[in-house]
Design goal:
The chain has 110 residues and is an all-beta fold. It contains no helices and 6 strands.
Length: 110
């Protein structure tokens, strides 16, 4: 039997919001939608040409139904203090769909 994930990290789910900037464009801000307890596991990493370290992560958390504001989407991000995890994909984890797996990338300047 597979062990359940160890949900020990408190992450804040954030959603991008656009607001008019008064000059015909917009400004993007991030709004906190709530917190999730999660398991964060490091996957692969690389250094891109702009001296930016890209580290991939698998983030597991309790599932939320489709359409709920608490269910992560690929255009959102998680915040853990000053560290940001950009969500690339979200998938249901396991046959009973009790958990979600988010594949995310953290960017760190080197």
């Amino acid at each position: 039997m597979k062990r359940p994930p160890n949900l020990t990290r408190k992450l804040v789910l954030e959603d991008p919001q656009r607001a008019p900037d008064g000059a015909g464009g917009y400004a993007e801000t991030w709004v906190a939608l709530g917190t999730h307890w999660a398991e964060v596991k490091s996957l692969s990493g690389r250094l891109n040409s702009d001296s930016l370290s890209l580290q991939k992560y698998r983030i597991t958390l309790r599932a939320s139904p489709d359409g709920f504001a608490s269910r992560p989407r690929p255009d959102q991000r998680f915040r853990d203090g000053s560290r940001l995890y950009r969500i690339d994909a979200v998938a249901e984890n396991g046959p009973d769909a009790r958990y979600l797996t988010c594949f995310a990338v953290a960017e760190v300047s080197t």
